[in-house]
Write a structure and sequence with these properties.
- The structure holds 2 protein chains of 2 kinds.
- Chain A has helices at residues 3-18, 39-53, 66-69, 81-90, 97-101, 114-126; strands spanning 74-75, 78-79.
- Chain A is mainly α.
- In chain A, strand 1 (74-75) and strand 2 form a beta hairpin.
- Chain A is globular.
- By secondary structure, chain B is of the alpha+beta class.
- Chain B has one domain: Hotdog Thioesterase (Thiol Ester Dehydrase, Chain A, Roll).
- In chain B, strand 1 and strand 2 (17-23) form a beta hairpin.
- The longest helix of chain B is centred in the N-terminal third of the chain and has 18 residues, at 39-56.
- The chains are: A mainly alpha, B alpha+beta.
Chain lengths: 127, 156
Amino acid sequence: MGDNEILDKVRDCVATALGRDREEVTLEKVLSRDLEAESIDYLDITFQLEKSFGITIQKDELFPQKIFQDESLVKGGVVTEKGLAFLSEKLPYADLSSFRKDPKVTRVPDLFTVQLLVNYVKTKFRA
Amino acid sequence: MRYVLIDRFLELEPGKRARAVKCVTRGEEFLRGMEVFPAPLVLEALLQTGGVLARAGTGFSRMSVLGKVESASFPSPARPGDRILLDVAVSLARPEGTMCDGVATVGEGPGQGRVVGRASFLIVFVPEGMAPPPDAAREEQRRRLMRALRIPAVTG
């Protein structure tokens, strides 16, 4: 599958799940902050991607909840070194460079952009 | 449930599809003189059918709640005297929940009857740790309801 086709389909998936116009769903948009995604919407996006691309996404594979639940990964509202290693391992397609400079756990949702979803789907097809 | 908007299940294939029926009578307390079965209740009937279908896929081991309604439309109204067929199919199932597509028709069935409602929706399972502890009275109430609705997995 070509990159443009992946991008088009990801935009459709996000637009459907979040009830947005397709034109609003651009690569740099953060799902939560810019497109107002709520917790249930992340699950909906997972459903839409599975359906649209015919892929299987394991629970917590795309949106790892453990970062918000495991006390060893976050201390005092800041993601620990162990937490950063966890994110690197779970989200190898995410750009963590900016996040590492100010690793507040409240900034974790900002990692989940449309671009991240596109990168994720590409890695699924390369695997 | 305060309002059960299903009279009974006609078919139930866990993980795949379900067909239930709701006969609209003039005596429904929520009609209160209205001539039209309110569209949100058509939606609710589809959601209740989908809820049972989703839970049937877990052997009724998980509690479920409505996650979201992706889309809904009501092309024509249902009225007292109508027999609404509620057909719901699983479009995708995951450990966290089930995505369903439903169509409510008055008449002979999808493609033949008059469509009174369509909806795509997401039923979510309550995470294990968040489900309330087992309760004998609630369990008995649930079993009675499932028998009354002729849910095949229970009545055999």
